[in-house]
Amino acid sequence: MSVRDVEAAALDWVWTHRDRFALGDDALAADGQVNRTWKPLGELTQVCASVSRCTPPGDPLHTRVSELLDFAWQQTHRGELFPLMQSLEPFATYPLEVYAAFASAGLRHPGYEASAAVLTRTRGWRLTEQYPTRRLGVLEAERRSGIDPHGDVPQALDRTWLGGLPEPWTFERAAGYALTHVVFHLTDWGRAPGGVPARLAGYLLHWLPPWLDTCLDARMWDLSCELLAVAASLPRPPEGAVLEDAWQRVAAAQAGSGAIPEEGAAQDAAGADPGPDPYDFTDCYHSTLMAAFAAALTTAATAPPPKVRHAAQHAGQGAPG
Length: 321
Prior knowledge:
321 residues, 15 helices, DUF6895, DUF6895 domain-containing protein
């Protein structure tokens, strides 16, 4: 099974289950569960925006993610819900972070951007306490939304786990997710590999392969796919044999429906009688999205350069004298 096959199967699953990403009546409720409403929709949007950039317009996968982006944008009433969210939770950062994913795909709401620009200039916004990786993500969300970032990216980077070049043996689950998102923010979700500073790129080139192997051995498919996306986002990827082995193991974990469980053996996540669609949505949607994301970046990074067509030169039509 090729990397492209993994991506296509994952996107088929996402398309089939797109209604599970829809916003319900609780999306604007004071006691709403953001992690079950806006978070999945934002993740869907970001992955589709990235895959869209990695695939040519004539590719069926480009068409599929474009349709998913349109579906996601419709869920926000074409951006009209973002000003409402801001009025309900002025200093919550997740509305801007979700909006930035849409903005990166060219789906924008000028009114929201104008009001958000005013809010981000306040001391209350600048002083909101956040984990370092989240702070870096907010700065990038501001930039992608056409807003001047309220802080310094290099300074924010230095405060992250990855930015400090920690001892490699201190890698564990939380550190893994932190480092993947640092790279996603620095590279605009794989769009600009040059965004990773040389010192971090060299560190990751050396240590990412054993970390990836450890996660695959532990059947941590979600984090493994994020690490594969990081590998494809570096200026220089790890050795091809490392990535080929990793993708074979991810493909083996993918169900016939295209879903990939976040963790564990397939039979553990699916239960005794898995049926055609073996996993609960919350147990597989993110890992399946990450598989599609990582596969798209990997395919784009390993694709041969496009052929340059030269105009035929006819006799007597040399350079003018």
